[in-house]
């Protein structure tokens, strides 16, 4: 089980316990301690789960997490109460608004007084309605009394009169101002025990926000004019705004609101949800009018195509006016027929029917007292799926141009795959209309996944069969569109072969089984989708060497490969069975074809069963770019031994030597004549900073045939013949944040890289490896992307603009205390190092010790004291401490450039 899976499992476990006990969320430290992992590792994966919709979190300190799957299952009798859940009234609660609903529920049930929540979105998207549902849900969950109030206040009404606004919120004492003829309680007291909904909170000025600080923090306030006593109230807050929060709210106010929920506009909602909104609004009007309605299909298509700032509010108004016009013209009719002629003229400019997606009249029967969900028929578009596939196409192209690393590639593809799966899961019209085909598809998918499990050791979770079957049904009839043509799908296919080779192989195996049994027209869409599905949800694609088993017999190789893959639960071996009457040349041809379609830069190991196959190297060397090893006398024990070493990412030469020795067999090892060229990026403060610099450098080199890798500073500072990285790679250049003495590889200190002093070294390193991007373009990108501001923009937690101001003060204080002016290159290095260091401290990823600590304290205790004083303010602000090891590194960076005592 991977760390991600272990963390997700623990999150489920703790969420269930916490919800039953007191409703509190889970913090990263609890999971880290339970699993024996570092807190920052757990925090990283928890944030990944949040981005993929598996978990939700607050933006408080500490951050609390919940598993979304069980967030609604707090009470034992939950199933009995399910129909009473107020959010079930919200159209889209199980579709496009599912994540938003989960966040609203989390805010409502959080102990002891819920969490303040802000609803954002365009005017008319339903923020006020959702606020009312949060209030009802809190009552439903018995978090507040059933008679608890919800008080609504529109901040815009008093935006130009802050005194009157404060008086309304907090109340006032008699005589507090002109006209205050008696004591009057404010809205906070009126909302005691329940909710206060502040609409258009962006119109609440700075003074008003500041007055709410204390109440949000401590639950106490004073009426205007009171000075002698504090009042207390238990009020839950819901805020709503149409504006960008960063621009309209004070940072100190925003930090007190842990949950922000963005409500999508009407045009971003699925067609099925928009249809159901139309139906629900017409049903209300039918009951008001006392007449059944028939809404013409042309009218339905017109309403489905509405675009405008009014959103749901606009839709509702158009529907009401159409009913009014129809009623006026057909007063005596028992059934009102509504068509596009009933649309008021002032609304026609927001309607533009580009495509008919609904092909029958909509019948509204007023006797149906309850709203009844409408099943869409004859929909011939899937906007969410198409948009997500479009995004995936762009992501694949960016990855191919080296504009993002593997981690970001998986993160973004998973995000878009989740959008597709959500749409598939909650819009099953096609499946419901053709249940026989679905059942047949599900059976084929189940067999395909079982084949993958047996042969490749890949286990998929329980929902995979249904989700994959539903996806295949919906994707089956999708057409190639203008944004992604057939040729572009094929190009993506070629990229994925090299980008995610293991997932690509398995995805194509599943696709082949499906295509053999179903009449599947768009095979490229299917193969792209399945490859990404496997990569996102079923396998951790790892950059390791290839491994092949070749043996005589009808199933000898596949049986041994199956055992090894299944036991280790990882796709390690591909197998090639060789019937006795099959010539070696035929099998070699198949192996060549396989190796041509996978990345062989990390090398290839081939296990064979007899000597006649050991000589296949000559036939394969032209398609293998890395090292090649062939081991004779294959057995299950040998396969397990080799597979285990491959998973542990041991060097190929070490694997074959040890495995052959352990299993008393022979091997041949062929060293690659062409080692992969590489640029090493290293930082004196550790791998964390180096990884950020690597990401920038990778963008600079683009598609050049050279790899950017990170290495620990101390491991490469001195010439070390035992360092494997220099055996594995042809290292052309080292870029470091501090001096490194090597005579075998050119070294550029980062400040010289930025100042363009290392131009000659860069040209030499890139000679012969550039492709579409010229050396000149790469050098220009280095100058542009290695600017201070761009490097600081790699910070993920802290505000780079704020940090740079704080660090500037720190560097100035060092100059003052040391009575010297720092050269520009030292200032630059310190700016970058200290900025990234502060983020590491906040993330609890500090350097806990340094080998020179004891000697440092003996000789430079004064520098330690000075540093503690210099960092005192910023450490208090971020509530972190500065370990001695970090101070030692700062000292060494300064000492390397100027002589200090």
How much strand?
5-15%
What structural class do you assign from the helix and strand content? alpha/beta
Alpha-carbon Rg, integer = 32 Å
Largest sheet: 5 strands, parallel
Walkthrough of the structure:
- Pfam families: EIIA-man, PRD, Sigma54_activat.
- Residues 544-679 form the PTS EIIA type-4 domain.
- This is Sigma 54-interacting transcriptional regulator.
- Keywords: ATP-binding, DNA-binding, Nucleotide-binding, Transferase.
- Residues 90-324 form the Sigma-54 factor interaction domain.
- With 901 residues, this protein is an alpha/beta fold.
- It has seven domains: 3-112, Winged helix-like DNA-binding domain superfamily/Winged helix DNA-binding domain (Arc Repressor Mutant, subunit A), CATH 1.10.10.10; 130-262, P-loop containing nucleotide triphosphate hydrolases (Rossmann fold, 3-Layer(aba) Sandwich), CATH 3.40.50.300; 266-364, Helicase, Ruva Protein, domain 3, CATH 1.10.8; 383-538, no CATH class; 546-609 and 636-665, Phosphotransferase system, mannose-type IIA component (Rossmann fold); 676-786, Rossmann fold (3-Layer(aba) Sandwich); 800-895, PTS-regulatory domain, PRD.
- 51% of the residues lie in helices and 11% in strands.
- It contains 40 helices and 23 strands.
- The strands form seven sheets. It has a five-stranded parallel β-sheet. A five-stranded mixed β-sheet has the order 16-15-17-18-19, with helices on both faces.
- α18 crosses α23.
- The longest helix is centred in the middle third of the chain and has 22 residues, at 435-456.
- The protein is globular and about 95 Å long.
- The two termini are 52 Å apart.
């Amino acid at each position: 089980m991977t760390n991600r899976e272990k963390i997700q499992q623990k999150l489920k476990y703790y969420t269930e316990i916490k919800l039953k006990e007191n409703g509190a969320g889970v913090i990263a430290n609890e999971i880290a301690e339970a699993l024996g992992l570092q807190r920052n590792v757990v925090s990283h994966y928890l944030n990944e789960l949040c981005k993929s919709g598996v978990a939700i979190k607050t933006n408080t300190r500490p951050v609390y997490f919940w598993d979304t799957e069980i967030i609604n299952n707090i009470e034992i009798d939950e199933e009995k109460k399910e129909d009473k859940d107020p959010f079930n009234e919200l159209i889209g609660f199980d579709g496009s608004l599912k994540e938003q609903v989960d966040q609203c529920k989390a805010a409502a049930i959080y102990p002891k007084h819920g969490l303040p929540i802000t609803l954002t979105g365009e005017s008319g998207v339903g923020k006020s309605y959702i606020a009312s549902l949060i209030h009802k849900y809190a009552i439903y969950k018995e978090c507040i009394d059933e008679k608890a109030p919800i008080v609504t206040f529109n901040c815009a009404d008093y935006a130009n009169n802050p005194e009157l606004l404060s008086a309304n919120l907090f109340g006032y004492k008699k005589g507090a101002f002109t006209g205050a003829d008696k004591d009057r309680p404010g809205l906070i007291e009126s909302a005691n025990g329940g909710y206060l909904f502040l609409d258009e909170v962006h119109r609440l000025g700075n003074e008003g926000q500041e007055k709410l600080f204390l109440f949000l923090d401590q639950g106490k306030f004073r009426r205007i004019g009171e000075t002698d006593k504090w009042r207390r109230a238990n009020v839950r807050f819901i805020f709503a705004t149409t504006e960008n929060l960063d621009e309209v709210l004070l940072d100190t106010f925003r930090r007190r609101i842990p949950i922000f929920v963005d409500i999508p506009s009407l045009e971003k909602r699925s067609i099925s949800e928009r249809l159901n909104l139309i139906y629900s609004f017409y049903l209300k009007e039918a009951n008001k009018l006392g007449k059944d309605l028939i809404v013409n299909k042309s009218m339905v298509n017109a309403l489905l195509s509405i675009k405008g700032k009014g959103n749901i509010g606009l839709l509702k108004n158009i529907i009401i006016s159409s009913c009014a016009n129809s009623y006026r013209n057909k007063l005596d009719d028992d059934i009102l027929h509504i068509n596009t002629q009933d649309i008021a003229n002032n609304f026609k400019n927001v309607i533009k029917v580009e495509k008919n997606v609904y092909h029958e009249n909509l019948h509204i029967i007023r006797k149906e007292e309850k709203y009844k969900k409408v099943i869409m028929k004859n929909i011939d578009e899937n906007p969410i799926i198409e948009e997500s596939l479009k995004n995936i196409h762009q992501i694949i192209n960016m990855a191919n141009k080296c504009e993002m690393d593997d981690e970001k590639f998986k993160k973004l593809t998973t995000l878009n795959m989740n959008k597709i799966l959500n749409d598939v899961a909650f819009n099953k019209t096609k499946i419901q209309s053709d249940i026989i085909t679905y059942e047949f598809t599900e059976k084929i998918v189940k067999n395909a996944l079982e084949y993958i499990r047996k042969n490749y050791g890949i286990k998929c979770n329980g929902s995979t069969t249904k989700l994959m079957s539903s996806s295949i049904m919906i994707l089956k009839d999708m057409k190639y569109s203008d944004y992604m043509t057939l040729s572009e799908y094929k190009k993506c296919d070629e990229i994925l072969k090299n980008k995610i080779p293991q997932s690509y192989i398995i995805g194509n195996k599943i696709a082949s089984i499906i295509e053999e049994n179903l009449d599947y027209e768009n095979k490229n869409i299917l193969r792209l989708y399945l490859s990404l599905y496997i990569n996102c949800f079923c396998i951790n694609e790892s950059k390791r060497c290839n491994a092949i088993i070749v043996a005589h017999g009808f199933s000898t190789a596949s049986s041994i490969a199956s055992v090894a893959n299944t036991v280790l639960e990882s796709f390690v071996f591909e197998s090639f069975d060789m019937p006795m009457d099959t010539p070696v040349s035929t099998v070699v041809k198949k192996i060549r074809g396989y190796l041509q379609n996978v990345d062989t830069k990390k090398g290839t190991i081939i296990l064979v069963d007899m000597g006649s196959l050991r000589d296949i190297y000559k036939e394969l060397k032209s398609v293998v770019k890395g090292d090649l090893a062939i081991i004779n006398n294959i057995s299950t024990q040998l396969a397990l031994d080799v597979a285990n070493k491959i998973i542990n990412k041991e060097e190929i030469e070490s694997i074959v030597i040890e495995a052959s020795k352990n299993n008393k067999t022979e091997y041949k090892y062929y060293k690659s004549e062409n080692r992969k060229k590489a640029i090493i990026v290293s930082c004196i403060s550790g791998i964390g900073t180096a990884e950020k610099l690597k990401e920038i450098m990778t963008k600079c080199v683009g598609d050049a045939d050279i790899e950017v890798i990170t290495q620990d500073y101390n491991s490469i500072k001195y010439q070390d013949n035992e360092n494997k990285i220099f055996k594995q790679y042809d290292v052309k250049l080292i870029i470091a944040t501090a001096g490194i003495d090597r005579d075998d590889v050119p070294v550029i200190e980062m400040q010289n890289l930025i100042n363009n002093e290392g131009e000659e070294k860069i040209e030499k390193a890139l000679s012969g490896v550039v492709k579409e991007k010229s050396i000149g373009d790469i050098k220009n990108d280095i100058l542009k992307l290695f600017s201070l501001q761009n490097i600081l923009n790699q910070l993920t937690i802290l505000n780079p603009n704020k940090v740079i101001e704080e660090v500037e003060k720190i560097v100035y204080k060092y100059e003052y205390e040391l009575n010297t002016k720092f050269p520009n290159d030292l200032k630059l290095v310190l700016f970058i190092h200290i900025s990234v260091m502060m983020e590491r401290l906040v993330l609890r990823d500090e350097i806990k010790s340094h080998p020179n600590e004891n000697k440092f304290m003996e000789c430079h205790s004064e520098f330690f004291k000075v540093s503690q004083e210099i960092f005192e303010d910023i450490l208090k602000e971020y509530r972190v401490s500065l370990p001695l090891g970090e101070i030692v590194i700062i000292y060494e960076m300064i000492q390397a450039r100027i002589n200090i005592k």
